[in-house]
Write a structure and sequence with these properties.
A hairpin with a 7-residue loop joins strand 1 and strand 2. The chain is of the alpha+beta class and 144 residues long. A three-stranded antiparallel beta sheet has the order 5-6-7. Strands 1-2 form a two-stranded antiparallel ribbon. Helix content is 40%, strand content 22%.
């Protein structure tokens, strides 16, 4: 899962990584299901730079954006109460105020109906705070 702003300071939440309920971050060292730091860095960089690769090959990222919007609209129109990682305006979310961040949220007929509190390890918490700070600085620079 990626949270925070969508870009250079996005935060990978490795502590929540699981497949089929098997926690891959919490597995013991040497376990075949454990991801190495090198694996994590490679996956993160690939995720962070995916848009550039898509633009290079297709000229734009609007196809992926359209798919995401279709999924969000479906959740709203069908009142699905789906948990989706959408950008929402937050107030007092982990001490963060006045900025929109990508956070897992319940999406239904009312749009974002609830921003979910998620478990973060101390490093992830620090990265999320940094992401919010950078986004707020940018908003200040453009007078918003």
């Amino acid at each position: 899962m990626i949270i925070g702003e969508h870009g250079d300071t996005e935060v990978p939440v490795w502590s929540s990584l699981n497949i089929g309920g098997l926690n891959l971050d919490g597995a013991s060292k040497g376990d075949r299901w454990t991801l190495s730091e090198k694996d994590k860095e490679s996956i993160y960089e690939e995720t962070k730079t995916a848009a550039y690769k898509i633009i290079e090959k297709k000229g734009a990222t609007y196809y992926a954006i359209a798919l995401s919007l279709a999924r969000i609209c479906e959740a709203i129109l069908k009142d699905q109460k789906s948990i989706l990682p959408v950008s929402s305006y937050v107030e007092n979310y982990r001490g963060i105020d006045g900025v929109c961040l990508g956070i897992p949220s319940i999406v239904g007929r009312g749009g974002v109906e609830e921003v979910l509190p998620i478990q973060l390890n101390p490093d992830e918490e620090k990265q999320l705070q940094h992401s919010a700070k950078k986004l707020k600085e940018f908003l200040g620079e453009i007078g918003f």
